[in-house]
Design a protein that fits this description.
Elements (H helix, E strand, L loop, with lengths): L16 H13 L6 H10 L4 H13 L5 H16 L3 H10 L4 H8 L4 H15 L8 H14 L4 H17 L6
Function: Modulates RecA activity.
Pfam families: RecX_HTH1, RecX_HTH2, RecX_HTH3
Protein name: Regulatory protein RecX
Length: 176
C-alpha cells in the first residue's frame, strides 16, 4: 500500500541566501549582459533579501560583471541596428531597463545622426513594397507612422519617406 509523502521530512539544510543570490546573478549574466536594475528585480522576485542583493551587485560591479554603461552601449547598438530604433525609442527602453539618465545620454550620444537617417532610410526601403499601389498620401502616412513608432522624428521621417518614394515612383526598377 503506497504511503503518503512525509511532509515534515527533513530536506536538509536551507540554502545560504548569499549563495542562492550569487547563483541567480551568474545564471542571469550567462549569455548576455543585464542592467543592475533588471538583476535587482530578479533577485527580489526570487525572495533574496535586499541587503544581500545590493552587496553582491556592488561586488559584481567592482569586478566588471555588472556594468550599466557597457550594457547601455551594447543595447543601443543592437537595437538601433536590429530594430531600426531611433534615439527617442532607445531612451525609453533604457529608462525601462533602469539605466540612469546620464549613462543613457552617454550611450545615446554615440549615435551618429547620419547613421540614424540611414537606419530610417533602410526601414523605408524594406517597407516600400508593401505600400505600392496605395494612394501616395496614404503610403506616406503609413511609412511615416512606421518610422514614428520606431522613435524617428517627424522631420527625419517625412524627409526620408518623400525621398525614397520619389526614387521609387521615378524608377520602378529601384525595388529590385
Amino acid at each position: 500500500m503506497p504511503t503518503e509523502p512525509d511532509t515534515d521530512r527533513d530536506l536538509g539544510p536551507e540554502a545560504d541566501p548569499e549563495s542562492v543570490a550569487r547563483k541567480i546573478l551568474l545564471d542571469q549574466l550567462t549569455g548576455r549582459a543585464r542592467s543592475r536594475s533588471d538583476l535587482e528585480k530578479k533577485l527580489a522576485q526570487r525572495g533574496v533579501p535586499a541587503e544581500i542583493g545590493a552587496r553582491l551587485l556592488d561586488r559584481f560591479e567592482e569586478v566588471g560583471l555588472v556594468d550599466d554603461a557597457a550594457f547601455a552601449r551594447e543595447w543601443v547598438a543592437q537595437r538601433q541596428e536590429g530594430r531600426g530604433l531611433a534615439r527617442r525609442a532607445l531612451a525609453q527602453e533604457l529608462r525601462r531597463k533602469g539605466i540612469d539618465d546620464e549613462v543613457a545620454r552617454d550611450a545615446l550620444g554615440e549615435i551618429d545622426p547620419d547613421d540614424e537617417v540611414e537606419v530610417a532610410r533602410e526601414l523605408v526601403r524594406r517597407k516600400v513594397r508593401s505600400v505600392q499601389g496605395l494612394d501616395p498620401d496614404k503610403a506616406v502616412r503609413r511609412l511615416v507612422g512606421m518610422l514614428a513608432r520606431k522613435g524617428h522624428s517627424s522631420s527625419v521621417a517625412y524627409r526620408v519617406v518623400r525621398e525614397e518614394l520619389s526614387v521609387d515612383l521615378a524608377d520602378p526598377e529601384h525595388l529590385g
